[in-house]
Design brief:
globular, about 20% helix, FAD/NAD(P)-binding domain, four-stranded antiparallel β-sheet
Length: about 325
């Protein structure tokens, strides 16, 4: 039994040697340290520029340029941009545009869809706005399809799709002293004047190619983050989250670009009646075991009765 502070470092009590463990971690870290740093990668330019193309949208999307004056432009539709825009909505701001290069919200979870991708931080800590959304992740470490679907759910809930400019990349931003506005230009020919700009353009949408000999002449089918090949569409039964259909924007009359994310959903582990999604399960109306092979088992929270199994078609 540990009775004193010194006992915390007693190897016999711990069952391992902390110093040896630290040394092992340092040894493994040193294996991954390289003097060439980022120079070990092949930049995605020239013949490799196809790797930055969006494989999840239909090619040839066009729209008319937008000229608008708004309160806030949010650059980036990942968690940072979604959280900033959601808080602005909560503060009462209506004149917001999220400008996102991808075909939908989600950020790194939009771009990275390789098989088995999942969160390496506890979902209850990592996913933003859980209490506000009254949502409980289905797994301690949620898989990518659920996180992407949840990103879309945030966009729907806070009406961020209304004025969103998807499949759009900001190419310029300059301060205009006369109008006291930021003037943003995009690759779609837009001119957006904004009082404020929230920068949330992360780096994880850009793939890294290994700078290895022969990569330029490689004749096979490479794959990075599922880009460069025909992506695997993740099909999950719909009807779990409300309002997940692709629809025309009420404010602009323009249809959102087609995206496979409109076919992605997730299954809630519990249906909470509490205002906090992080409350213990006893506050939830229904508890569900993990879904496997299209089957899930449910029972009333706090009940010791038998599990009732349902099949999802």
């Amino acid at each position: 039994m540990v009775t004193t502070f010194q006992d915390l470092f007693n190897h016999a009590e711990l069952g391992f040697d902390p110093d040896k463990l630290r040394a092992k971690y340092r040894e493994e870290r040193d294996k991954r340290l390289r003097a060439d740093g980022n120079e070990q990668y092949q930049e995605v330019v020239g013949d490799f520029s196809r790797y930055v193309d969006d494989p999840y949208v239909e090619p040839g999307y066009t729209r008319a340029p937008v000229s608008d004056e708004i309160d806030v432009a949010v650059i980036g539709g990942g968690f940072g941009g979604l959280l900033a825009a959601a808080r602005l909505r909560e503060a009462g701001l209506e004149s917001i545009r999220v400008i996102e290069k991808g075909g939908d919200f989600g950020g790194t979870w939009y771009w990275n869809r390789y098989p088995g991708a999942m969160c390496d931080i506890e979902s209850y800590i990592y996913l933003p706005l859980l209490e506000e959304m009254k949502y409980v992740p289905t797994e301690k470490y949620a898989h990518a399809p659920e996180i992407l679907a949840y990103s879309r759910r945030i966009g729907e809930h806070y009406r961020l799709y209304d004025k969103a400019l998807l499949q759009t990349e900001v190419t310029s931003m300059a301060w205009d002293e006369a109008s006291r506005r930021w003037i943003l230009g995009t690759d779609r020919g837009d001119r957006i004047a904004a009082r404020f700009v929230a920068m949330s353009n992360g780096p994880l949408n850009r793939p890294k190619l290994p700078g290895i000999p022969g990569i330029k002449s490689f004749a096979g089918t490479p794959s990075t983050r599922a880009a460069g090949t025909t992506p695997t569409r993740v099909e999950v039964p719909t009807g779990i989250f409300p309002s997940f259909t692709t629809s025309a924007s009420a404010s602009s009359g323009r249809e959102r670009p087609p995206s496979s994310a409109s076919r992605i959903s997730a299954r809630p582990r519990s249906i909470c009646t509490s205002s906090s999604a992080r409350r213990p399960r006893s506050t939830c109306a229904t508890i569900a075991r993990p879904i496997r092979n299209g089957r899930a088992s449910f029972r009333k929270a706090g009940s010791s009765g038998a599990w009732k199994t349902s099949t999802f078609s």
